[in-house]
Structure formats: C-alpha cells, structure tokens
Amino acid sequence: MSAFFVPTVHTLAELRERVAQWRARGERVGFVPTMGALHEGHLSLVEEARRRARRVLVSVFVNPTQFGAGEDFDRYPRTLADDVEKLANVAADLCYAPAVEEMYPPGFSTTVAVGGPAVADLEDHFRPTHFSGVALVVAKLLNQADCDVAVFGEKDYQQLLVIKRLARDLDLRAEIVGAPTLREADGLAMSSRNIYLTAEERRIAPVLHRALTEAARRIADGEPIGHVMGEAREQVAAEGFLIDYLEARHAETLARVARRHDGPIRLLGAAKLGATRLIDNIAVESAQ
Length: 288
Description:
The protein has 288 residues and is α/β, with parallel strands linked by helices. The chain has two domains: 8-179, Rossmann fold (3-Layer(aba) Sandwich); 192-281, Pantoate--beta-alanine Ligase, Chain: A,domain 2 (2-Layer Sandwich). The chain is 37% helix and 19% strand. It has helices at residues 12-24, 40-52, 80-89, 100-103, 123-126, 130-145, 157-169, 199-204, 207-220, 225-238; strands spanning 8-9, 29-34, 55-60, 94-96, 149-153, 175-179, 242-250, 265-273, 276-284. The protein has a six-stranded parallel sheet with strand order 1-4-3-2-5-6, with helices on both faces. It has a three-stranded antiparallel sheet with strand order 7-8-9, with helices on one face. The protein starts with 7 loop residues before the first strand and ends with a strand.
C-alpha cells in the first residue's frame, strides 16, 4: 500500500474549492479525465501531466452519454477504491469522482454537436452518438477542472482529434496533449476492456497491432497504400477478428489518403475478437 494519500471529492463545489486553492498559490494545474478501471496506460498519462504541471487532478466518471444502445455501460468495470490506490502510487493530488446526478442533474438538456474529425466514417460510423457524448462530458470536465493542461491517450486517436478541435473551437483554456499508447510486452494496447478477453483471445489479440505495424513499415517503404491495407485486413480477419475498419488516414484531418505523400499518415483499426472490441492505431513514419 502506498504511503501517499489521494483525497477524493464527489461534488463540483468541492472540486472548485480545491482547484481555487491551487490557483491562489499560482500553481499550474494538470488534468487527466478517465472512466476508471485504471491501468498502467492511465498512470502514464498522470505522469505526463505531472511533467507539465505542479498539481495533477484525475477524474473517474463512467459517462453514460458516450455509450450507445447495446454497449457495455452497465458492465463497464467500476473500481474506484482500487483506482485511488493506483493514483496514490503515482502521487496524483486529487481524484474527482462525481455521480451521474452531479454531472447531469434533473432537467439537464444540453447537447454538443460535433463535426470535423468526429465525422470521418471511422468510430462514428459504428458508434454514431459516441463523440457527441464525449464532447459533452469533456467540455464539462475541462470547465469544471479549470486546468492549464489536459492529457489524453493516443490509443483513442479519433477521440483525441475531436477533443483538440473542441478545445480550439470553444476557446477552452486548457492545452490538450496527446500521450503515446502504452502497450503490453506483446504489443497489445492497454485497455480497461482487455479484461473481457478469454485466454485464447488474449493470445490472438496482439495480431491487430502487428498487422498495423507491418503495414506502416511497408507504406513508409513506398508500397501502395491500398494493396498494403488490403493484405493487413486479410491477415487480421484470418485470425478470427470481425473488422469494423482498418484504414490509412491523414493524421491531422482523418481524410482518406491514396498515396504516401498525401500528408502525415495514421493507420487506425477497430475489430471485435469474441465479445471484445479492440482499437489501435500507429503512425506511418516519414521517409528519411
């Protein structure tokens, strides 16, 4: 057990009181929004925020507005006590864990409409209400936290671009920082949903990352994008994945790309393995 104690607050009034105390001392505030079930990937975001700010706040809130019909909101892991213990191990300063009623009180009726990278025919095609829910809760949390910098993982790459656009368009004060995806030793991107994988599925799961990595290398070497991505899809499907998408897109706009020099390229994939949906992405390195 860590000797460091992380206080937890559950109301906006408590949160604002704590942040106001930091601000009164001129302390820079970093923020890491999460849905809990914390793993080493989340903790790496806390460490990145610590490099950029004197104080680090972490929220734990399973946001109902970003889950669609039939998704796993009810069974999404909720492990607040364990999460707070892990936050103590990386010396976070405060955990904010509001109830749904605190975030969306009776009569709440505001929504956020999103465009740009939120309508790229990737995650939005399969989860059409997801990014409006993400944008709503992130806008609220950034306002509540009154932070200088907020750190998000690159694993949810489309989400990261949506949040960057949100902050720019709404003139939010926070600098939005993307942090690299943390991976298991075999390359699987760390995710709270990995606990749903069976032992056999866990053995197969790194195939998605390996296929993206190989495709990125081949595209960087000048092979045709369409041919390379087609073979990557075949490789992933042959291992039993049901592919939602496996595509090469412009890394800044998520527009489709046909040639290596159409701009910086990001490869993005989402596929189901059994009952678990995995997502991943990787950059195509620039030619030397």
